[in-house]
Amino acid sequence: MQMRFNKSAPAGPRNLTALKKGESAILERIDMSDIDAQRLMELGFLPGHSVTRAHSAPGGDPRVFRVDGSEVALRRETAVHLILR
Amino acid sequence: MDDCHGPSVATLPPPETSGKQHVVAIVGPPNSGKSTLFNRLTGLRQKVANFPGVTVEHRMGRAKLDHHREIYVVDLPGVYSLQPRTEDERVTHDVLAGTMKGLPKPDAVMLILDSTNLSRHLSLAAPILSLGLPTLVILNMADDLHGRGGDVDAKELSKQLNTPVVLISASKGTGVEKVIEFLNGAPKHLPPKPPLLQLPVLQDVPKVRDWAANMSRRTNFRAPAPPLWTRRLDGIFLHPVVGPLIFLLVVIGVFQTIFAGARPLMDAVAAAIQTSGKWIEAAMPDTPLRSLIVDGVWSGVGSVIVFLPQILLLFLFIGVLEDSGYLARAALIADRTMARIGLQGKSFIPLLSAYACAVPAIMATRTIENKRDRIATILIAPFMTCSARLPVYTLVIAAFIPEKPLLGLFFGTRAAALLGLYVLGFLAAIITARLLKSTVLKSTRAPFILEMPPYRWPTVTSLILRLIDRARVFLRRAGTVILAVAIVLWVLAHLPLHAGKAPAIGESIAGMIGHAVEPVIRPLGFNWKIGIGLITSLAAREVIVGTLGTIYGIEGTTQSMGLQAALRHDLTPGGAAALLVFFAFAMQCMSTVAVVRRETAGWRWPIIQFAYMTVFAYVFAFFANRIVSLWF
Predict the structure, then answer these.
(1) d(Cα B580, Cα B272) in Å, to the nearest integer?
(2) What is the ipTM, given to two decimal places?
(3) What is the pLDDT of residues A26-56, one digit of tens each?
(4) Contact: B223, A55; criterion CB under 8 Å
(5) Which CATH class is domain B2-225?
(6) B244–A42: do the CB atoms touch at under 8 Å?
């Protein structure tokens, strides 16, 4: 467990990939370029709002997240940049 | 007449006769039911169009109003904001601002939002209202909202926004009359007063979202319960074991439909074309004109129209998958596999469609927002074994490969050869995708984002309208490009006249061209007759079958031979293998070239693609000829 966690977020803050299925957390910030961050915010990934992990593709990537009344799938490579509070 | 009386007269002149076109734009986020409403309003009076210089398409239609009047309605791409970051957003912004070439500034806007997700969708109201155009806010999916225990006070929202608001269900048709009422008065609506709650700074997404949340709170919006059925269905369709199995069943189902299911329909169309050709033949005197019409036009165009049932069935399938919401799940499941070859989940369905025809497949890549991924998908799509290759494959395989059982009754040598050709095309696509994504199309790391819409029942109207639209596109191609090629080929095969009679095919212009290219294609094992076929099949692959039919039909010595026997007479086994490989890889299709040019807005990509595929085909056909010739 410890190993996997380290691999996904090398000594960094907790990000979206840490959420287990059905688990919720509050989004802190999006560590991406302004354009990408704005696009994610328009889809409901808003700092201060809750994110819930839902289903995933077979193999666990991409994963579906419930945000602001809708469901959006992100790849692991994107999800690691969404930092949780 | 009415125009002369000034603005006090209520009637709007019909669009055809009025000096100024009256246009109302439909705007809304993706999956808000925009297209469903558009279809309700316009029905068959619609067409797909492209703005000059951009690859985003839009639909224009005419909505019927009172007193036999009509008004133009334009359906714009689905967007969440008007910040011009993507091409979709830029087009929407430019149309609404009136700066889009070829379209007058809309007289009014219909903003359609999903009422079940109102607090988020209202975010789009801020940039739309700040445009100052007369606006009708349409809260769609009222049935779903109420069904799941949600509610909204449309009157209060109207008061708060200072613009009319209606609550409708576009798929059921309830409330649509209120939309038509708005359209009736469209050219005379006044610009809205600003909303009671001051509009936020539009660039600040969290501020806009807060504004939308405040707005929905003021209108007693009660959010509906979570979509229970969608969660239940996702439990099955995205189940780690069952999900992929269902996915495979869907893919097999699509294949089965394309090949087995379409067969009887295609046979029926082919029979109808043949019979009607005979009627024409019997009804006309024996002149060159009859030969042109029957042998040139009728059989040439007929050979393409045969594919219509197959293409329509495929689009029926894609339509059901897309409208039901399963397409997004399929993209999710396919994403990891597609990522290995440098593409993404959204490329999967276009590539699957390419097994029927590359043209609709390339149009279907519009759902891929990432430009590089989209171009990569467009460039590899023609490698997929489209149905136009099938007549060529079947002919050559039947002529050269004896049928022997391999695995029981159902899988023989011929089926294996056909499967091998499918695999070959698929491998070429993978190699090319890898090559592209590691060189010229190295991705700019734009994040892969896939929205999962709730599952919904597809509506029959929207499925039928989609099929009619596809049929129109396809038949237009048959009626123009293919028709022209059929006529040109017939003329080239019948000129120059010798003593008033058509020449032997070898002495005709077509024959001369065939002889001229022979040195180039000899290393592949092809003679000048195949050369003519290769040239005519530049129009469309299946044309070669008709061409060879014409050539061998005209040539006296082989007249009695069937086409298969004639091919065996003219091709070595090595040449036959080379012909199959050449058709697997070459971009022998003018329609595909044309659609790539349109979708990539320029000649650069289609030219690169055509050159690449031709060289690829030539090299591998050369080796196929050499290797097979060693054995046989």
Answers:
(1) 29
(2) 0.88
(3) 999 999 988 889 989 999 999 999 999 999 9
(4) no
(5) alpha beta
(6) no
